[in-house]
Amino acid sequence: MEIINERQDLGYVHVAQQMLEPCLVFFQQWNNPEVVAVVLEDGRLLASPGAWRKHFVELQQIAFAARNVCPVKLFCEGPAAMIREILTDADGQRRALEIQSGVTQYGENLAKQTLSDIVSEALAVDATDIHLRMCGQDARISFRIDGLLCWQGNRSRIFVTEVVAAALNTQSDDCSDVFDERKISSASITLTLPEPYGEVRIRAQKSPCRDGFTVTLRLQKSAQLEVPALAALGFGNETVKQLQMLMQQSIGLILISGPTGHGKTTTLAAMNRLVPATRKVISLEDPIEIVQPAIEQKFVPNTAEHNAFSEMLKVVLREDPDLVEVSEIRDLETATSAVSAALTGHLVASTIHANDAMGIIPRLLDIGLTAVQLSQPDLLAGLIAQRLLPRLCQHCREIDMRLDDGAVWRRNSNGCEHCLHRGVSGRVVISEVLIPGNEACRFIRDQDFHGWREHLRERGWRSLASEAESLVRQGLVSLQDACEVVPNMRIQAFGVSAIKEENYADSI
Ligand SMILES: [Zn+2]
Ligand SMILES: [Zn+2]
């Protein structure tokens, strides 16, 4: 047996094409990346140490199968990673060739049809994303529904790879890239689906992982959808009034925080509906997620190398807007431009990644603004935070624990037909709105967030945690989901005894 440590020691590598399929089957059947083999045209059977050790018999069968097409003359051992690379390269080249020559035309159409089917299925259950993860010979398909990942089933890995290829090739012509499992690639695709879905935009992102690759398809429903009103999104009367007041300010900075996928952009769009028609709104976005006919939306491709947001902010200020929006503040340049726009007599609104409303300040300090800048009176008009919580299915929810004045409910792990057996259906919004006054400016200048929080608590300020608590008490949300999603959410808030808490811990 010849031992080969590196690819260059192999010399000229040419895989025996007739033996490619049996070698792929051999590789995929063990579900073990360390077990891999390939037959080279010069008669070498190259296998990993794991393959020789555990599957010697099967390797001999491969050699036997090769006797008429490419007789094996020499057994070699080499690193599994190297052999995997040779094998997948050869596979990719073969498929690319087949596609060029139109051999797989039928297969490609079938793959596109399957993609449409999977996307339609996802839209039917209101999924926001489709996740495809390669797992041995299988591809796991999951949908994200109401913020939760739901496993849908497995399909053959080879087939799903073709589906992904079909997806990524619709617009991009880098088909060899797609077959190279080790490369990251992404593409935007527009699919035309049968009614009622129509055109759907999909952002596809593929990246390598331990066992091949994963693909995330983010579904962007057609942008013509009407922007919902704040009340329809689930905001309470008090909050709607506060937000309405904010949108009527003439100067200052309004920031909405929350994790990705928790509806910040939708909220901002809904807030725009509260702006009187006598005011001009210019919104700089990357990408434009929701089409809002009432305002002026500009697509501003923003990259790390080129900060188009801050540049465009300065430009549009000369276009006499009353309200300027930037889809997200994530760097110092944009933050500085937003602050100076707000300080020169404009109302500026944006979103930002922060844990809660107060957390926006440390985040801005992190980005590079100073406490002195941020504590200027009239700069911060409103700090908002929001979360979306899975809504308990009212048909099948179960009692989690009894309280003196009611009960806490939890998901039914089997669900029912109303909730697609998930125990939850839809999401409810919770939010907190902070309108910094003079005292807040002092806390910000001193960076005394603890003191600020105490100050708010004394005044009975409604935080995310208190909103979540009231939803839990209403039986709309489970305590477990609330604790997972909401910062500073405490089971203790329910004043239940330690014994009940233990029971609770056992039940999850
Ligand atoms: Zn039911
Ligand atoms: Zn249910």
List keywords for this structure.
Beta-Lactamase, 6-stranded antiparallel beta sheet, 19 strands, 26% strand, elongated, binds zinc ion
Write a brief caption for the model:
By secondary structure, this protein is an alpha/beta fold. Helix content is 37%, strand content 26%.
Gross morphology: elongated
* Ions, cofactors and other bound molecules: zinc ion
Proportion in helices: 25-40%
With helices defined by DSSP (H or I, 4 residues minimum), what is the helix count?
19
Q: Stretches where pLDDT falls below 50 for ≥5 residues? A: 171-179, 496-508
Architecture (CATH level 2) name of the domain at 105-221? 2-Layer Sandwich
CATH topology of the domain at 105-221, which one? Beta-Lactamase
Q: Kindly, what is the distance between the CA atoms of the first and last residues, rounded to a whole number of angstroms?
A: 54 Å
**Strand content range:** 25-35%
Number of strands: 19
The biggest sheet amounts to: 7 strands, mixed
Radius of gyration: 28 Å
CATH C-level category of the domain at 105-221? Alpha Beta
Task: Write out the strand line-up for the largest beta sheet, numbering strands in chain order.
Answer: 13-12-14-15-11-16-19
For the residues shown, what is the average pLDDT?
84
